[in-house]
Amino acid sequence: FNGDQRWQLIDPLMLLSCKSLQKAEVFSRGGNKLLKLSSVGAVPADCNAGVFGVSIATYPSGAKIDPGTRVSFKAKGELAPSSLLGGSRNYVWDRIQLTIVDKTGIGVKYTLEHGDIDVRQSPYAVELFPVPDADGRYVRDLHADFSKLPGFVSGTKVDMIQLDVFSVGWVELDDLCISK
């Protein structure tokens, strides 16, 4: 995915016909194109919504998930500390995640930052907590991660890649690669 990939912003406030305060941008740093996603967590006064967070998704043209298929990417970001948010919020769902979904609708969620942990696994998705290397790069065996899900069929193609900031925070994504 070379930065020319088409990404679609998914903002719950826009779905409610509210003015969006969320932001997605592509910018260059050191010759690379990076994707930055920011969620300010604020809801405009004229909008009756309690929705926080923003997502951005792309629909690649079918990388196969075969044995030996890896996903690698660089990512950095952070969630706002609870002291800035009044300390009274429920942080169970606060997350920065990269989710990869196959053609059958099952997926792997790589949680990069999180609030209080309340992992709720399902037969359709597995949540993993990868650790980056010293350069901030995440490398995972995508086939092995999908193999943890019942019903996964080796050789299925990737259908969607989604980057999420739930609550208040930001994330930068660079050098996303799915390959053998």
Structure, described:
The protein is mainly β and 180 residues long. The protein contains 2 helices and 11 strands; from the N terminus they run E-H-E-E-E-E-E-E-E-E-H-E-E. The longest helix is centred in the last third of the chain and has 5 residues, at 142-146. The mean pLDDT is 77.
Entry summary:
This protein has 180 residues and is mostly beta strands.
Shape: globular
Strand order of the largest sheet: 1-4-10-6-7-8
Mean pLDDT: 77
Give the topology string: H per helix, E per strand.
Answer: EHEEEEEEEEHEE
- Low-pLDDT runs: none
Distance between the termini: 14 Å
Give the count of helical stretches: 2
Structural class: mainly beta
Helicity range: under 10%
Radius of gyration: 16 Å
Helix-strand layout with pairing:
Elements: E1 7-10, H1 12-15, E2 23-29, E3 32-39, E4 54-58, E5 70-79, E6 95-102, E7 107-114, E8 125-128, E9 137-141, H2 142-146, E10 158-166, E11 169-179
Parallel strand pairs: 7-8
Antiparallel strand pairs: 1-4, 2-3, 3-11, 4-10, 5-9, 5-11, 6-7, 6-10
